[in-house]
Amino acid sequence: MVADDLKENVPLQKEAKVSMAPTELKPWPEFIQKRIDMWDRLMAEYKAELAQKDKQPFERLEMTKEDLLEMFKYNEFKVRIIKEKINTPKTTVYRCGPLIDLCRGPHVRHTGKIKVSFNSRHMYLTLSFCDIWYSSIFKAMQITKASSSYWEGKADAESLQRVYGISFPDPKQLKEWQKFQVITPNMYNSKLWETSGHWQHYSDDMFKFEVEKEQFGLKPMNCPGHCLMYSHQPRTHNELPIRYADFGVLH
């Protein structure tokens, strides 16, 4: 689903090439294209909801190695995989909507079986399909980040974009994972205090010191740390107000 959405549904990724689909040991898709940013990831999750409503069928096809090489000739990564990994006269591919990819399967009948839901803080997917390695453990999922990687882990090979996610047996456990206790540091850089507005009003009453030519101050309040917690992911005004509990030490 993530591969489908980033390749076909996110406008910024129209020219992306899916190099490596998820496997048992690497449950993330890899692409060659520009950097995948937070907006792309959120849009991929949002588009998954639209695909679910369309009930796009998963169609299993058996194809010869020659036909596959012709089909994927635009994608040098797929060509390498077909030449190196497929040792039988025929193998299977799955088609779902506009995407077709190498896969052993099985899948559910259509994307309508994939439950998609949202909460006020994160867009997340609740999946209920069964694949050769997904089994029944992949029912609540969230895309967490994207990073660079190399084809087959070789530093002299092409640079790719890897998409990471996390999954849980049910949405409740996902929500629990999204919430965790935070204890912020005892001192902050003055730049953070300036951003929060405290430096302009309270700096004369704070214990200040210099570290590597940077001005720091012991914290008499937790608010600046909450600025960082708030900004660690995209936000909308619909989430406000947000309340944080911080059990840090104040001076």
UniProtKB/TrEMBL annotation:
The keyword Nucleotidyltransferase does not apply. Transmembrane segments: none annotated. Gene3D superfamilies: Bira Bifunctional Protein, Domain 2, Threonyl-trna Synthetase, Chain A, domain 2. Signal peptide: none annotated. Keywords: Ligase, Protein biosynthesis. InterPro entries: aa-tRNA-synt_IIb, aa-tRNA-synth_II/BPL/LPL, Thr/Ala-tRNA-synth_IIc_edit, tRNA_SAD. The keyword Iron-sulfur does not apply. It comes from the Eukaryota. One of its GO terms (cellular component) is mitochondrion. Residues 91-164 form the Threonyl/alanyl tRNA synthetase SAD domain. GO terms for biological process: threonyl-tRNA aminoacylation. Pfam families: tRNA-synt_2b (PF00587), tRNA_SAD (PF07973). One of its GO terms (molecular function) is threonine-tRNA ligase activity. PANTHER family: THREONINE--TRNA LIGASE, THREONINE-TRNA LIGASE. This is Threonine/alanine tRNA ligase second additional domain protein. The lineage of its organism: Eukaryota, Metazoa, Ecdysozoa, Nematoda, Chromadorea.
